[in-house]
Amino acid sequence: MNWNRAIDWIWHVRGSVPLAHRSAQAAFEALAPVFEERGTTLDHGTDTLVFHKDNPDAQDRLASFEQGVLRIEDTPDGPVLRYDLTSHPLLWCFVAPAPFAALAFAVQSLRIQGYSFAGIFAALYLAGRWIEHRNARRVFGERLAGPGAIPAETAPA
After folding, report:
1. Structural contact between residues 65 and 59, judged by C-beta atoms closer than 8 angstroms
2. DSSP 25
C-alpha cells in the first residue's frame, strides 16, 4: 500500500471536468488566462499542464493551490480534464486542531480556549475542503464551457 497516496487526500484536491469534445490544445488555450498571474510558472506538453505558484496574490482565483497537474484524458463519454491540485493551507488547517486539543487536555485552565481553537481549525478545514474543490471545478468549468454555455455546476450529469 502506498502510504503517501493513502493520506495525501488531506491536502490534494482532485476532480474532472468534461471538455465537450475539445482538443487538448484548445482546452489549454481556454485555461491560459487562469494561470496568467504573478508568480505562476507553467510547464506543459501535449496533454498535460503543470503549474507552480510562488507567493500568489489574494485575487488569484486558485491562490490556495501552490501547484497542480492538469491532464487531458480520453474517456468513453469524450475527453475530460483531470486535475490534481496541492494546497498546503488545507494541510495546516487539518493539522492545527491537534496541538490545540493537546493543550486543552494538558492544561486545565486553557481547556475552553484550546478546544475552541481546535474546533475553529477543524471547521476551517472542512469548509475549505468543500469550498476549494467547488472553486477549482467552477474555475475550470467556466473557462472550458466557453461563451454562452451552461456552467459546469448546473450542467446535467
Report:
1. no
2. H
Mean pLDDT by 10 residues, the chain (157 residues): 77 91 85 91 91 90 93 89 94 96 94 96 96 94 70 46
Number of separate domains in the chain: 1
What is d(CA 99, CA 37) in angstroms, rounded to the nearest whole number?
Answer: 35
What's the domain range around 70? 3-145
Report yes or no on 157 lying in a domain: no
Contacts of 69 (CB under 8 A, 6+ apart): 48, 49, 50, 83, 84
Question: Cell numbers 486539543 correspond to what residue?
Answer: 101
- Close Cβ partners of 59 (under 8 Å, ≥ 6 residues apart): none
Residue 148 CA to residue 142 CA, distance in Å, equals 10
Alpha helices in 34-96 (DSSP H): 88-95
Q: What is the pLDDT of residue 148?
A: 44
What number of residues does the chain have? 157
Instruction: Please give the model's pTM, rounded to 2 decimal places.
Output: 0.83
pLDDT of the residue at 136: 95
